[in-house]
């Protein structure tokens, strides 16, 4: 075998080896979402009262231990325990009586169980203060769902505002809407806790355990959805646009997904948290918003949005000066409206919702093209004339302006630089007038003017 052949064989061997190592390299996976459950447990004096077969504290303690024990080996779940009303005897009222007894950590179920077994109810019921302090119980985490389960036998007794505390937790993105389980509560429980979170009134021990299990199931369950972006015919043909899912009530952004279709041509599945009521913003131009989206847990949900789109192409007539188009912008508005919905470069194509638009091209002078129609799945082309070039030689430094002249008269488009003797301007084809007065001659009758015409793609020298 020749030396050249040996080199070729050796090179092929190295290439094959490198390729095999690349194929064997583990892919970088997305980090698993960790569900963090903070139990806020009522240990106030009223928990010593009888309920069903035992005292409220014993029933609640037993069921809490059973739930925590069942979650001990659940992957991607961490737990913590905050107590209130357990440090100071009532009376007197101690409205600061709350403490995080077991912080979040992996494999801490035994610590929570041991703490629960030793709870002795003593004090008052500072629910609002406990929720406020819970904001500090969740360490920073980029891939965590923070869940609060409040277990209580009564309502706030410290003049706090549990609703405001819960709203702060949700609005700031610290925790999802809390779950509240009432033990032997009165008729005012629903009214007091309706604004705090999802509230459940356990009428007996058996129902308490069942409710607790349902809440845990909902708290840990994510669900799937597909978003069908509909065209004018109601077909889910639109795709490749970002969708933002935010909390409908507080505006906190939860998820961003760029819409796509799978290999079967169906809208791809996304994973969402069923504990949130969503506002979905489809970032088309202009955006489409779908409000009050409620997902059914444990089921595949379908969300619909009407997003019929066409394309708008803005181009400049080809030629030696058309390269300026990449630096020229156009303002896009809905026809007859003043709000700017987009700014598009010339020599580009953008998608817009089907409709009529006003296009204002920021050439000199500006060009307004009204009532441009964008149709479903079609490309609408708007062509802008090439500018010409005006090279203005000023005999003196001075104050002056440039005007375009049309059937409406003179219209100011540019104020001249008073210290420059030569200015080069790219102007659209048309008739112009430059007006100038020396800055060294303070007399109005020293004003000079010159008219000129600009032709597409041509350079015109103007002397004044």
What does the model show?
19% of the residues lie in helices and 40% in strands. By secondary structure, it is of the alpha/beta class. It is elongated. Helix 2 runs parallel beside helix 7. The chain folds into 4 domains: 34-220, von Willebrand factor, type A domain (Rossmann fold), CATH 3.40.50.410; 223-306, Immunoglobulin-like, CATH 2.60.40; 309-384, Immunoglobulin-like (Sandwich); 388-463, Carboxypeptidase-like, regulatory domain (Immunoglobulin-like, Sandwich). The strands form 8 sheets. Strands 5-4-1-6-7-8 form a 6-stranded mixed β-sheet, with helices on both faces. Strands 11-10-13-14 form a 4-stranded antiparallel β-sheet, with no helix packed on it. The chain contains 7 helices and 29 strands.
Look up the CATH topology of the largest domain: Rossmann fold
Strand order of the largest sheet: 5-4-1-6-7-8
Total separate domains: 4
What gap, in angstroms, lies between the N and C termini?
Answer: 83 Å
Measured by DSSP, the beta-strand proportion falls in 35-45%
Structural class: alpha/beta
Individual helix count: 7
Estimated helix fraction:
10-25%
CATH structural class of the largest domain: Alpha Beta
The tally of beta strands, per DSSP, is 29
Second rung of CATH, namely the architecture of the largest domain = 3-Layer(aba) Sandwich
What's the name of the CATH homologous superfamily of the largest domain? von Willebrand factor, type A domain
Note poorly predicted spans. 3-28
Provide mean pLDDT, rounded.
88
Basic shape: elongated
The radius of gyration is 35 Å
| Largest sheet, strands/sense/barrel | 6 strands, mixed
């Amino acid at each position: 075998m020749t030396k050249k052949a040996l080199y070729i064989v050796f090179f092929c061997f190295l290439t094959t080896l490198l390729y095999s190592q690349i194929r064997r390299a583990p892919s970088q996976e997305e980090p698993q979402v960790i569900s963090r459950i903070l139990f806020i447990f009522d240990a106030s004096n009223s928990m010593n009262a009888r309920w069903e077969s035992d005292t409220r504290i014993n029933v609640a303690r037993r069921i809490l231990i059973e739930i925590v024990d069942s979650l001990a080996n659940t992957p991607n779940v961490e737990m913590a325990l905050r107590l209130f009303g357990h440090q100071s005897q009532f009376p007197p009222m101690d409205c600061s009586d709350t403490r995080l007894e077991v912080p979040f950590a992996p494999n801490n179920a035994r610590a929570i169980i041991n703490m629960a077994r030793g709870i002795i109810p003593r004090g008052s019921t500072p629910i609002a203060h406990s929720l406020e302090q819970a904001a500090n119980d969740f360490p920073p985490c980029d891939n965590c769902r923070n869940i609060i389960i409040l277990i209580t036998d009564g309502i706030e007794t410290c003049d706090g505002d549990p609703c405001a505390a819960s709203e702060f937790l949700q609005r700031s993105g610290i925790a999802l809407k809390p779950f509240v389980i009432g033990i032997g509560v009165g008729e005012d429980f629903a009214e007091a806790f309706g604004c705090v979170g999802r509230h459940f009134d356990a009428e007996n021990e058996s129902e308490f355990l069942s409710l607790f299990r349902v809440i845990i199931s909902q708290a840990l369950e994510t669900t799937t959805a597909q978003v069908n972006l509909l065209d004018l015919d109601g077909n889910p043909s639109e795709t490749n646009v970002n969708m933002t899912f935010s909390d409908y009530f507080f505006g906190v952004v939860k998820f961003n997904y760029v819409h796509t279709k799978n290999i079967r041509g169906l809208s791809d599945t996304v994973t969402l948290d069923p504990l949130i009521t969503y506002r979905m913003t489809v970032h088309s131009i202009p955006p489409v918003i779908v409000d009050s989206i409620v997902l059914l847990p444990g089921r595949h949900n379908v969300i619909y949005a009407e997003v019929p789109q066409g394309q708008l192409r803005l181009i400049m007539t080809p030629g030696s000066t058309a390269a300026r188009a990449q630096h020229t912008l156009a303002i896009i508005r809905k026809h007859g409206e003043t709000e700017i919905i987009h700014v598009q470069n010339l020599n580009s194509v953008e998608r817009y919702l089907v409709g009529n638009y006003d296009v204002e091209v920021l050439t000199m002078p500006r060009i307004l093209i009204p009532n441009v129609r964008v149709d479903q799945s079609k490309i609408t082309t708007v062509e802008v004339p090439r500018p010409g070039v005006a090279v203005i030689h000023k005999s003196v430094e001075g104050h002056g302006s440039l005007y375009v002249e049309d059937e409406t008269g003179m219209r100011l488009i540019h104020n001249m630089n008073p210290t420059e003797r030569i200015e080069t301007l790219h102007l659209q084809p048309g008739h112009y007038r430059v007006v100038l007065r020396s800055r060294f001659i303070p007399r109005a009758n020293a004003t000079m003017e010159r008219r000129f015409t600009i032709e597409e793609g041509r350079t015109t020298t103007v002397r004044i």
